[in-house]
Amino acid sequence: MTTRYCRFQHEGRAHHGRIEGEEVVVLSGAPWAGGEDTGRRVALSAVSLLVPSEASKVVCIGQNYRKHAEEMGKPVPAEPLIFMKPSTALNAHRSPIQIPKASQEVHYEAELGLVIGERLKNADEATAARAIWGFTCINDVTARDIQRREVQHTRAKSYDTFACAGPWIVTGLSAADLRILCRVNGQVRQDSRTSDMVFSPARLVSFISHIMTLLPGDLVSTGTPSGVGRLVAGDVVEVELEGIGTLANLVEMEP
Ligand code: MG
């Protein structure tokens, strides 16, 4: 059985919660850190959802779907290719993506997000699999023109609002073969399955943990399938993962 967990703003305060039907059960803290039921309930329709975890970092994977590596003109990597987005780039469900003035070509990238539930260092794949606490949807928004002309990914991937995550976290799910979709203004642009990944979630988390310590709440974004393309102001972009939900964001110009 799957369970949905969220973070939300209600009456001026941020809370973690467990979604039950049309209500949210308020928790005393992050559920992966022992947060418990407070007994309070609020209507899901009355809260505004926040990014589902306060990640210290977002570790992203490049070229983890064969057809996307092809469309980027890159070989499938022999080992996972990683880069990072700062926590300041995190952006919640329904919060606008802002196109920076420095880019003329901002792209969507629909991705399966992993939420890490415990401190992890030098983990084997079995330990890494157990440390994946849940799954969410991520849009790895990218300034493609900047990415193309630089060797490093940091600038192209790190603008504020470029790490959309949500709308919530789902636990108790197998993510081995989920349909992954991106829609722009209702039109399907990416449509693949997580079974097409080159490296599995457990392999990715184990690999990353041999480089850096993963902390509870950290996010790992597992790469995007083929079909990436441009966003312009006024677009509504949706990332949908089967069994998880749909992350939706409006696009606007940076003020
Ligand atoms: Mg990506």
From TrEMBL:
Keywords associated with the record: Hydrolase, Metal-binding
Occurrences of domain Rv2993c-like N-terminal (ranges): 4-52
GO molecular function: hydrolase activity
InterPro entries to which the protein is assigned, alphabetical: Fumarylacetoacetase-like_C, Fumarylacetoacetase_C_sf, Rv2993c-like_N
Keyword Metal-binding: yes
Domain Fumarylacetoacetase-like C-terminal: 57-251
Domain of life: Bacteria
Name of this chain's protein: Fumarylacetoacetate hydrolase family protein
The species this protein was found in: Archangium lansingense
Highest classification ranks of the organism: Bacteria, Pseudomonadati, Myxococcota, Myxococcia, Myxococcales
